[in-house]
Amino acid sequence: MASIDPIVASIIDAKPPGECSDDDDLFDSLENDPSLESFREQRLQQLYDEISRAKHLRNQEHGTYTEVKDEKSLMDIVNTMAELCVVHFFRSDFQRCGIMDDHLEKLAPVHFDTRFLRISVENAPFLVTRLRVQVLPCVIAFRKGVSVDRIIGFEGLGYSEDTFTTRDLEQRLLVAGVLVRQKFIGTQDPRSAQQSGITVKENRGPVNSDDEDWE
Predict the structure, then answer these.
(1) CA dihedral of 173, 111, 142, 144, whole degrees rounded to 10
(2) In which residue ranges of the chain is pLDDT below 70?
(3) CA spacing 20 to 30 A to 166: which of 93, 141, 155, 193?
(4) Residues 79, 73: Cα–Cα separation, whole Å
(5) What are phi and psi of 135, to 5 degrees?
(6) Who contacts 198 (Cβ-Cβ below 8 Å, separation ≥6)?
(7) What pLDDT score was predicted for residue 107?
(8) Measured between alpha carbons, how far is residue 51 from residues 11, 46, 47, 194, 213 in Å?
(9) What is the pTM of this model?
(10) SS (H, E, C) the chain
């Protein structure tokens, strides 16, 4: 995706297209921009193009965190339907998978360029074997159908394995190249402090092997 003007990006990120019934307020935000007059026409066109592109993506289920029920459908999305994908392999009875779900649900609506998907390991025996998924939660980032990063459990997130924020997860996926740009500042959702990515703290005692190693 081509880079866009920082002011246009800030407007889009503050109120992603498709979340309101009328986009006129998005254009009003740019009209009220005190920047030089000569830039306004170009920015308005870019804002219009970005809104149209975002709405097109949302019609293809971008901007949602979607559970896929079978591995063929998942492979179709990853390989042919979306350039950028984040896939969470989970089990519904694992607490840590639920924590990962909470963070991915916050990222999906604002990072609409990327498909955020989840699939139960019980519905994906072929992929689990092929991708060597052994510890849950397992999040794999794909770019053009190729795996570019893998998050095993909470490894590499935050200050410890059991403490991380939505911003930490976002940063990891940015480095992997499957997100377009940063949209969380600190632990805050760009739209609302009340919807912030909170710090998650779990019991620091020994982790039961059933919580992660599912084989």
Answers:
(1) -130
(2) 1-5, 7-41, 46, 50, 159-162, 185-215
(3) 93
(4) 10
(5) -120, 135
(6) 165, 166, 187
(7) 95
(8) 10, 9, 6, 25, 43
(9) 0.70
(10) CCCCCHHHHHHHHHCCCCCCCCCHHHHHHHHCCCCCHHHHHHHHHHHHHHHHHHHHHHHCCCCCEEECCCHHHHHHHHHHHCCEEEEEEECCCCHHHHHHHHHHHHHCCCCCCCEEEEEEHHHCHHHHHHCCCCECCEEEEEECCEEEEEEECCCCCCCECCEECHHHHHHHHHHHCCCCCCCCECCECCCCHHHCCCCEECCCCCCCHHHCECC
Question: Which positions ≥6 away from 159 have C-beta within 8 Å?
Answer: none
Question: Do strands 84-90 and 115-120 pair parallel, antiparallel, or not at all (unpaired)?
Answer: parallel
- The b-or-e profile of 77-88 (16+ CB within 10 A means b, else e) is bbeeebebbbbb
C-alpha distance from residue 67 to each of 59, 61, 117, 129 (Å): 17, 11, 6, 20
Q: For residue range 109-155, what is the model confidence (pLDDT) as tens digits?
A: 989 899 999 999 999 999 999 999 999 999 999 999 999 999 999 99
